[in-house]
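Deviation from plan, reported transparently: KE4 complex.
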Amino acid sequence: MNSRNQQLFERAQRHIPGGVNSPVRAFRSVGGTPRFFQKGVGARVQDADGTWYVDYVGSWGPMILGHADPAVIAAVQSALVDGLSFGAPTEREVDMADLLCTLVPSMEMVRLVSSGTEATMSAIRLARGYTGRDLLIKFEGCYHGHSDSLLVKAGSGALTFGNPSSAGVPADLAQHTMVLAYNDPQQLVDAFAEHGSRIAAVIVEPVVGNMNLIVPTSEFLKAMRDQCTRHGAVLIFDEVMTGFRVALESAQGLFGITPDLSTFGKVVGGGMPLGAFGGKREIMAQIAPLGPVYQAGTLSGNPLATAAGLATLRRVQEEGFYPALSAKTKALCDGLVAAARRHGVAFSAQNVGGMFGIYFAEHCPGTYDEVLACDKEAFNHFFHAMLDAGHYFAPSAFEAGFVSAAHSDADIAATIAAADTYFGSLT
Ligand code: KE4
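Because the crystal trials were delayed, the predicted structure below was used instead.
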């Protein structure tokens, strides 16, 4: 008899494209039936069949405190009874702006939006308006949301302009985006040597979470900062995933690089629809109604989203929050690697703060090509074995994973034990 997940998935496909409201949820990369969740508590989620899983997706990053954190729930409940939305300024938005500009020293001003996509789309338009230039540089394997200028893949040759990576993106728009290799400083220097006066911005995931997890080299980030400074281009750190995930000071503080603009999402909303973009006052002053770069949003700074975000950001500032989160995430990675090695399985893993990557390869990849060389099928088998055992990893070999403050040492140990059993079954 079909499970509730299967019944719901069949019904969902009648009126929702692919049965999902975001493609990665459809399990197309790993195969099988997506789980329809009905409840989350702490480190666990429950699907429509009543099955519980230790959750390593955490809504793709936002649930850093765990699901249904009592303080977040209380903050939203308290805000709820005063009204859901006004389309007018509220004090809580000012509190959020003040807090973000305190926690992110590179941000002198910030604008709240409702998603990471809106944050990056707006930051790019702002960089183009501020510089009066059109050319944008991004890196292959990095994902910054689904606005047209970012759905672009590398051109036919190095240093050539991009082609659309999605139907519906005009070719002559994609021509304004150049897609370079991540962790290749020389190629970036060459691109600036050739096009420097035309480059409006470079946008980068300062730790990549969208081609699995890739850590930047310091040379790469330094070259990026130097070249943008030298040629008057805007350096945009897309911290939608890394923001308050890898450290309280986000990736920019961790690596000691000061971007001109930063984008945030996920953790800053605590699970509610909230994103933000911000940076130097001189640049942000170009945003309407102050300046000529238009940007707007009906639900921007929504009272419930800012309540959830503020409650979350209050907690992550607690002494010891990130050392504990990082240690737990590292223990997961080390335990999985040790289990794989015990059974002779080619496997590696690494974490940066509370986000991690697992790879079916001897070593952690450092580039997009090295990620592609990892054994995707081996990951897919691992994914399903772990799902059946009650441990929910990201349903794609090209995504990062996330640990929350609610994951206990016992949860981590149970996941490692389940993986050990799986790796043992392979020999
Ligand atoms: P949203 O529009 O999904 O809130 O944010 C887009 C975005 C921007 N920048 C980075 C670095 C991101 O990781 C994201 C979104 N991340 C994906 C996870 N790979 C969200 C999951 C999904 O697309 O359903």
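Residues 321-342 form the longest helix (22 residues). We consider this an acceptable substitute for the interim report.
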